[in-house]
């Protein structure tokens, strides 16, 4: 089975893990700190804070920025559910925003503007598929309305501009991401004091950690704020350091495969919409090329294509079911309609994209996809 995503793990990661085990210190220590510094340097920011997940990163960002009860936060519905859940964790209200278009499935500024109220305190911009949202436009949007700007950069590790224009950004190292620590996340932020606060909040609000107390030969600590158990351990940080060394090379392979996909799909499947294939001069995005989304023709049965590709040994996925249509949120907002997001999700398929792939596999996927779509059309005509 050709998988949608397939992490690269090998000798470097095994050696890194063994070194941590041999040293015997497995909680937050110098590997975590080295990972934070290396990640910050890679992304052109001063510092970063490693945490247990991207979900934890988003929650800590909202808490540190003072988002809470009575506040509204603009969020994309085309995202993983954690983007909205974290707003609820903070006691605020998520306000769902439509995408711009089927071929540009990033959060819409026009719809976001229409949904701003006196209660709106922040907007979370999600870099869908690894394509970084328009930096200048979103900065102007947030500044002109006095809003906090938060980047959900779960898809965008290694992308130029990601994590560099919002008040803060959250990255993911989940197993299907461009680099992985199995579970894990990272926070970047403009303000050093904010990062210090997040660093303290991730560990129960304690004024010092175990490694700091060991290094400084002290035993005491205080708790000066409400905190959480959102720490990253040394094992994951060691894997992260090994992965980070290869991130630029892996992302470049993803870029080349994406270009081949776009060209092959244009030639073999001209009736399939390929998001981001048509560049926009006013919003040329950088990208980590995290996933390869396509939008099937409206008259094609999505499940039939999924089944056909599965039979051909090709896994597909869907990124994402709209958050506002998931049972938990639908019960809260039964009448909410986001037409473009709903249509996109109904027709979207994510096809395989990862650095282990070769060019011939891209061609095989496109050929199988063309066959599936054509067969579906013929079956529809017969009916």
What does this protein structure show overall?
- 42% of the residues lie in helices and 13% in strands.
- The protein is built from 14 helices and 11 strands.
- The strands form 3 sheets. The chain has a 7-stranded mixed beta sheet with strand order 1-9-8-7-6-2-3, sandwiched between helices.
- The mean pLDDT is 95.
A few lines on this structure:
The protein has helices spanning 11-23, 30-42, 54-64, 82-89, 109-114, 135-145, 192-201, 210-215, 234-244, 247-268, 302-311, 327-332, 339-347, 359-382; strands at 49-51, 72-76, 93-97, 99-101, 104-107, 120-126, 148-152, 168-172, 185-189, 292-295, 348-351.
Any descriptors?
2 domains, two-stranded antiparallel ribbon, Aspartate Aminotransferase, domain 2, 11 strands, 7-stranded mixed sheet, Aspartate Aminotransferase, domain 1, 14 helices, single chain
Q: Class of the largest domain, according to the CATH hierarchy?
A: Alpha Beta
Low-confidence stretches: none
What's the pLDDT, averaged over the residues? Answer: 95
Total beta-strand segments = 11
How many helices? The count is: 14
Number of discrete domains: 2
Helical content band:
40-55%
* N to C succession of SSEs: HHEHEHEEEHEHEEEHHHHEHHHEH
Quickly give the CATH architecture of the largest domain. 3-Layer(aba) Sandwich
The structure class reads alpha/beta
C-alpha Rg (nearest Å): 22 Å
First-last Cα distance: 32 Å
Topology:
Layout: H1 11-23, H2 30-42, E1 49-51, H3 54-64, E2 72-76, H4 82-89, E3 93-97, E4 99-101, E5 104-107, H5 109-114, E6 120-126, H6 135-145, E7 148-152, E8 168-172, E9 185-189, H7 192-201, H8 210-215, H9 234-244, H10 247-268, E10 292-295, H11 302-311, H12 327-332, H13 339-347, E11 348-351, H14 359-382
Parallel strand pairs: 2-3, 2-6, 6-7, 7-8
Antiparallel strand pairs: 1-9, 4-5, 8-9, 10-11
């Amino acid at each position: 089975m050709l998988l949608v995503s397939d992490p690269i793990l090998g000798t470097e990661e095994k050696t890194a893990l063994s070194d941590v085990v041999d040293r015997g210190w497995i909680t937050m220590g110098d590997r975590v700190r080295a990972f934070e510094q290396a990640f910050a340097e890679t992304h052109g920011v001063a510092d970063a804070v490693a945490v247990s997940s991207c979900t934890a990163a988003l929650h800590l960002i909202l808490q540190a920025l003072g988002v809470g009860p009575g506040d509204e936060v603009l969020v994309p519905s085309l995202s993983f559910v954690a983007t909205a859940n974290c707003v609820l964790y903070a006691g605020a209200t998520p306000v769902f925003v439509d995408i711009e278009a089927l071929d540009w499935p990033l959060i819409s500024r026009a719809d976001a503007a229409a949904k701003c109220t006196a209660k709106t305190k922040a907007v979370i911009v999600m870099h869908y598929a690894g394509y970084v949202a328009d930096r200048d436009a979103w900065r102007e949007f947030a500044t002109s309305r006095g809003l906090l700007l938060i980047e959900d950069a779960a898809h965008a590790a290694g992308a130029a501009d990601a994590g560099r224009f919002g008040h803060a950004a959250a990255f993911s190292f989940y197993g299907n991401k461009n680099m992985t620590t199995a579970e894990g996340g990272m926070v970047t932020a403009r303000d050093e004091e904010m990062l210090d606060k997040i660093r303290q909040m991730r560990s129960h609000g304690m004024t010092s950690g175990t490694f700091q107390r060991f290094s400084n030969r002290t035993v005491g600590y205080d708790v000066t704020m409400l905190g959480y158990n959102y720490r990253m351990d040394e094992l994951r940080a060691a894997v992260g350091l090994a992965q980070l060394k290869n991130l630029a090379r892996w992302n470049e392979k993803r870029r080349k495969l994406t270009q081949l996909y776009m060209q092959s799909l244009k030639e073999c499947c001209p009736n399939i919409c390929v998001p981001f294939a048509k560049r926009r001069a006013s919003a040329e995005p950088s990208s980590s090329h995290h996933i390869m989304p396509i939008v099937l023709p409206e008259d094609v049965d999505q499940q039939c294509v999924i089944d056909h590709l599965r039979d051909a040994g090709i896994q597909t996925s869907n990124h994402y079911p709209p958050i506002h249509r998931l049972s938990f949120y639908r019960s809260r907002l039964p009448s909410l309609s986001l037409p473009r997001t709903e249509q996109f999700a109904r027709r979207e398929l994510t096809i395989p994209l990862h650095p282990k792939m070769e060019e011939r596999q891209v061609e095989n996927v496109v050929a199988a996809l063309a066959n599936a779509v054509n067969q579906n059309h013929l079956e529809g005509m017969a009916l």
